[in-house]
């Protein structure tokens, strides 16, 4: 069963007082007993000394026992049958007194049941041993005399002349008197203690009632606050009260006001939290849609990059074939140069042998035909290079457009699209580099076609000259100067072909390097597109996770608002 606060307070106050009162009674009883014993001892000793001094101050003679059995002190003072001293002690000091000569009582106030004095009786051996034998004072608390227990004090009686112990002087008081006195004192102490306890009980009851009533009001207020009632009022008397109860009331008021402010702040914060949750949800939806657009754009860029890489590789292979052809052309030009030199030498020897000149003309015609065919092949390869370069330029333009779109979408995404914007800018830069490289390829190819056309024209001229030379072989002698001049022109043409072939070979090396660079760039574009696609997928996962968190945030905000509605402000 639950105890009331008043009962608990009374218990806490009275229980220590009762325990302390019990301890006080017990300790006081012990102290009383010891004090009484000490006081009785002192009083009995003083009475014994006073009684003995009465005899000693009467005269300075020794104590003697006469032949008739009486005891006297000198001739002037007879002790036997003179009870004035012991009776005076009994009347005034309220103690019994006995004079012992040796161990025998000769004077006493103690009487038997018949009213006769206990004359002639002897002291106990224990008393005799302490007083007569050892000459010491002896205090005893439970000596039994004539069936009655006494507190007794014995002092030795000594001869004035020698100091020898010849007897004892006893003073005593019955234990019943002492016990009655002690019991009376004990009862007084008990009544006083009970009176103090009762007074404390009344005071404690009043204070407990006041405190418990104030605390009950504070508890009721706290319960109302706990149930959400923040409009509850607090008793003014409790607020003005001193002590812990007043502190409790003031603390309760402070708690109520703090909760009012706290709940108000929480309400405002919850509203802001709810609004933020809805805004975050809308932002996430927009971000998710933007991310999907970016992902599609990245996929298109990736496909374009893969196509660019494939076509660049194909262009690289064709340019390598063209390079091999150009190398063959250079070799043939070297041969043509050798043949031209040979023609010149043969022209110098034309006069010696016409047949040798005819043979040289045939070789020249064959070489010219081969050069013409190779030059035409070179023109066709240059046209294919131009087409491949146009394809690369188209891909670069598409890549540039896609990177521009990606940059726009990244800008729309804000902070989350910053990383993607960097990738898009890099792709745009690579596309611009690819476009510049294509322009260089077109420039080189145009130069190659121009040089090839010039070479064809020159070769046609050489062919006409050689044919004409062949037709006029018979007239070699007559036309020797013309033939010699034609050979000189042929040598010059061959030198021009050699120069153009060297330029074409250098252009071939440059084109191969450019195409290889384009191939590497295309591969990098494809890898960057794949990395961007992976980053976009991670971004989608993050957006999904944030969306779940935003939904949970809205639920928490709704629950918080429901809890706040329980409070009355």
UniProtKB/TrEMBL annotation:
SMART domains: MA. Residues 283-540 form the Methyl-accepting transducer domain. Keywords: Cell membrane, Membrane, Transducer, Transmembrane, Transmembrane helix. The keyword Acetylation does not apply. It is found in: Cell membrane. The keyword Transmembrane helix applies. GO terms for molecular function: transmembrane signaling receptor activity. Residues 209-264 form the HAMP domain. Signal peptide: none annotated. Its main location: membrane. It is a multi-pass membrane protein. Gene3D superfamilies: Methyl-accepting chemotaxis protein (1.10.287.950). It comes from the Bacteria. One of its GO terms (biological process) is signal transduction. PANTHER family: LYSOZYME-LIKE PROTEIN-RELATED (PTHR32089:SF112), METHYL-ACCEPTING CHEMOTAXIS PROTEIN MCPB (PTHR32089). Belongs to the methyl-accepting chemotaxis (MCP) protein family. This is Methyl-accepting chemotaxis protein. The lineage of its organism: Bacteria, Bacillati, Bacillota, Clostridia, Lachnospirales.
């Amino acid at each position: 069963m639950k105890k009331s606060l008043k009962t608990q307070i009374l218990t806490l106050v009275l229980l220590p007082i009762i325990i302390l009162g019990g301890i006080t009674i017990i300790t006081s009883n012990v102290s009383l007993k010891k004090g009484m014993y000490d006081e009785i001892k002192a009083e009995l000793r003083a009475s014994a000394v006073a009684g003995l001094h009465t005899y000693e101050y009467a005269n300075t003679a020794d104590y003697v026992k006469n032949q008739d059995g009486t005891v006297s002190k000198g001739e002037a003072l007879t002790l036997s049958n003179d009870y004035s001293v012991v009776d005076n002690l009994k009347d005034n000091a309220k103690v019994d007194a006995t004079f012992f000569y040796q161990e025998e009582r000769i004077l006493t106030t103690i009487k038997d049941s018949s009213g006769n004095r206990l004359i002639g009786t002897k002291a106990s051996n224990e008393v005799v041993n302490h007083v007569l034998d050892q000459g010491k004072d002896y205090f005893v608390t439970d000596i039994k005399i004539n069936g009655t227990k006494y507190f007794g004090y014995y002092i030795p009686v000594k001869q004035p002349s020698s100091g020898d112990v010849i007897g004892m002087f006893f003073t005593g008081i019955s234990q019943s008197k002492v016990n009655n006195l002690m019991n009376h004192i004990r009862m007084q102490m008990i009544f006083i203690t009970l009176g103090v306890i009762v007074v404390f009980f009344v005071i404690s009851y009043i204070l407990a009632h006041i405190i418990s009533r104030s605390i009950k009001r504070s508890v009721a207020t706290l319960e109302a606050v706990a149930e959400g009632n923040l409009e509850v009022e607090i008793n003014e008397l409790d607020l003005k009260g001193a002590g812990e109860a007043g502190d409790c009331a003031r603390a309760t008021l402070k708690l109520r006001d703090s909760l009012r402010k706290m709940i108000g702040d929480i309400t405002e914060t919850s509203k802001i939290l709810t609004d933020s949750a809805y805004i975050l949800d809308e932002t996430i939806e927009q971000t998710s849609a933007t991310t999907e657009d970016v992902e599609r754009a990245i996929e298109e860029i990736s496909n374009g990059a893969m196509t660019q890489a494939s076509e660049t590789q194909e262009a690289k292979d064709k340019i390598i074939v063209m390079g091999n052809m150009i190398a063959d052309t250079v070799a043939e030009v070297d041969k043509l140069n050798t043949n031209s030199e040979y023609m010149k030498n043969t022209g110098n020897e034309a006069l010696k042998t016409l047949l040798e000149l005819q043979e040289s003309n045939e070789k020249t015609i064959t070489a010219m035909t081969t050069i013409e065919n190779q030059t035409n092949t070179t023109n066709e390869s240059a046209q294919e290079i131009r087409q491949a370069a146009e394809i690369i330029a188209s891909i670069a333009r598409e890549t540039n457009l896609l990177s521009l779109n990606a940059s726009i979408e990244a800008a729309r995404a804000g902070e989350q699209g910053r990383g993607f914007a960097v990738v898009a800018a890099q792709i745009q830069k690579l596309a611009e580099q690819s476009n510049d490289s294509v322009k260089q390829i077109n420039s080189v190819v145009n130069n190659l076609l121009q040089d090839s056309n010039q070479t064809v024209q020159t070769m046609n001229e050489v062919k006409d000259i050689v044919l004409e030379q062949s037709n006029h072989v018979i007239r070699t002698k007559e036309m020797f100067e013309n033939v010699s001049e034609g050979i000189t022109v042929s040598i010059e043409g061959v030198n021009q072909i050699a120069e153009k072939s060297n330029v074409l070979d250098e252009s071939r090396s440059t084109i191969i390097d450019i195409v290889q660079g384009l191939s590497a760039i295309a591969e990098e574009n494809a890898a960057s597109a794949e990395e961007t696609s992976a980053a976009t997928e991670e971004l989608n996962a993050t957006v999904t996770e944030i969306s779940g968190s935003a939904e949970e945030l809205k639920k928490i905000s709704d629950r918080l608002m429901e809890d706040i509605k329980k409070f009355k402000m």
